Amino acid sequence: MVLSEQQTEKLKPVLLFVLATLGAIVAGVVTSKADLKLILLFAAAPIGLIFALYPVALFGITMLIAYVLAGLAQLYFPSLELIRWAVIPLSFIFLLYILIESSNQPAGVDRKKSYDTLGFLLIAFLLINVFAAVINRTSLLNIAIGMKGYFQLWGLMFAIAFMNWDERLMRRWLPMSIFYLALIQVPFALHQYFFVAPLRHSIAKGIVPVDIVSGTFGGSIDGGGANAVLAVFMFSVWSCLLALWKKRGISTAATILITVIVLLPVMINEAKVSIIYALVVFFVVFRKGILTNSARFLGVTVLVFITVAGLFYTYVQHAPEGKVSSWSELIVYTVEYNISKDEATDGKLTRGAGIELWAEDHGSIANTAFGYGVGATRVDSRNNLAIKLGIKDPRSYGVGNLAAMAVLWESGVIGFLILNAIFVVAFTHAGRLEHRFSHDSWLSGIFLGIQGAIVILYISMWHKNFFVFHIGYQNILVTIFGFLIYWYKRGMPVAESK
Questions:
Q1: Looking at the predicted structure, is the pLDDT value of residue 323 above 60?
Q2: In angstroms, rounded to a whole number, what is the distance separating the alpha carbons of residues 190 and 231?
Q3: 253 close to 292: Cβ distance less than 8 angstroms
Q4: Residue 468 in contact with residue 403, Cβ under 8 Å?
């Protein structure tokens, strides 16, 4: 039976009272355990159920915590950093609401196609991680760490994918929300550059002060910062911005102004990979127009290469003192730090050494195919992987220092291939949707820009390991994938969607 809108409104006060009572009981029981993580996790559940009566608010608060509050709490209010745990129940409660809403559609309502290739591949990646954990007899601790790390926001992703909300809301509201979130990064990045970074100059440990310029994506005063996540986010937004300009969905003046604002944070932090991201955006977004309409894109070509030159200049200024004084020395230093040496200055494997380690010592046929189980690279205690490599602590040694390598170690070649297929299919989906909505300069521009964002996300898999644990990074990814599935179900002609 489907409740009418009037009946639902009458029931809301009763449901709120019941949920508030249950929330008070749960809060009392969990608080008595004196475990802050449990308190946040379980307290978020009744709060999420209350918000479920107002789904737009639930969606908004989940996105706000993942994109903004979790990172800001980690840096500015460390005692509150566990607020990020609230995202897990909130995202899955939102998914539950969306599924119930979809199942309660009255007869005669057009039901959109529920799944597609991208959705199947995402589920396959989840299942291969479960299977790898089973065959490796992975401990419950490792499973909890690993599954939370990979899939903590997948409830939000599938909720976006299965939404039956007004398409006008998803067409304009969600992309504009992401643009506004990009603008929010600027004041925080400036504050971190001028006030937080100078505090880190006196700290030892070999940290780079401007690493902390990470906007709302978090960091630690005496440790690292998520500046690379900020770079992924800002260049993904810039990709959509330039694509909208290409599709004539935004004026040239607005494009230049927003470009200056959006790229300012990545100009003052230390994420050298931004140089690659800038070139990726240029070649992905304008790959079809440079040769056929080179006159129109001459200006943007100059803009991109000025951006790259500016990035080179700022990174030379921020490079370790006495080691880099020119662009060429910056390139040599970066290659040596990441590839040439076996260990970086913190004693962990470099990116190149991590890849070499797997190539030389990946183990048996079963371990090569299915890995050593979810969470194997991210625990402080010995497990099958640690025993195989003869080390005490895989995480401290940097075995999974790249997301791509963490996936290889944990779910094997099969999991790695599925993950690669996910990015390929996502890129293809975005391209088909760009073509399908070619009459709509806004949507076609967004989908073209998303293609650039997907390439950036894939490159980041070989640069950092944020894919396996970082809420801010994962929110970028699940928002894009959920958005693609949502529109692919609705936008593709019947012949293409089968």
A1: no
A2: 14
A3: no
A4: yes
Which one, of 479, 487, 488, lies nearest residue 158 by Cα? 479
For 143, the enclosing helix (H) or strand (E) is: helix 140-151
Q: What are phi and psi of 395, to 5 degrees?
A: -70, -45
Instruction: Specify the length of the chain in residues.
Output: 498
Q: By the 8 A CB rule, do 419 and 125 touch?
A: yes
Report how far apart the first and last C-alpha atoms of the chain are (Å, whole number).
31
CB 397 within 8 A of CB 349: yes
Q: How far is the CA of 457 from the CAs of 122, 422, 453, 466, in angstroms?
A: 16, 12, 6, 10
pLDDT value, residue 22:
56
Cα(114)–Cα(442) distance, integer angstroms? 25
d(CA 102, CA 387): 47
Q: Model confidence over 430-468: pLDDT tens digits?
A: 999 999 999 999 999 999 999 999 999 999 999 999 999
Q: Give dist(CA 49, CA 95) in Å, integer.
A: 11
Q: Is the pLDDT of residue 226 over 70?
A: yes
Mean pLDDT, residues 245-271? 91
Q: How far is CA 294 from the centre of its chain?
A: 34
> How many other CB atoms are found less than 10 A from the CB of residue 38?
14
CA–CA distances in Å: residue 488 to residues 162, 346, 377, 429 = 11, 45, 35, 7
Supply the pLDDT for residue 61.
87
Domain ranges of the chain: 1-111, 117-498
**For residue 231, pLDDT beyond 80:** yes
Phi, psi of 83 (to 5 degrees): -60, -25
Comparing C-alpha atoms, which of 419, 473, 448 is closest to residue 118? 419
Alpha carbons 279 and 303: distance in angstroms, whole number: 11
The CA-CA-CA angle for residues 95, 97, 102, to 5°, reads 95
3-state DSSP call for residue 136? coil
Give the span between the Cα atoms of 56 and 199, in whole angstroms.
40
Got the DSSP string for 155-199?
HHHHHHHH--S-HHIIIIIHHHHHHHHHHHHHHHHHHIIIIIGGG
CA 190 to chain centre: 22
The Cα 418–Cα 120 span in angstroms is 10
Q: Read off the pLDDT of each residue in 229-245 and give the average, rounded to a whole number.
A: 96
Are 90 and 48 contacting, i.e. CB atoms less than 8 angstroms apart? Answer: yes
- Taking residue 380's Cβ as centre, other Cβ atoms within 10 Å add up to 12
Say how far apart CA 479 and CA 100 lie, in whole Å: 21
Stretch 97-116: mean pLDDT, rounded? 65
- What is the distance between the alpha carbons of residues 51 and 64, in angstroms, rounded to a whole number? 14
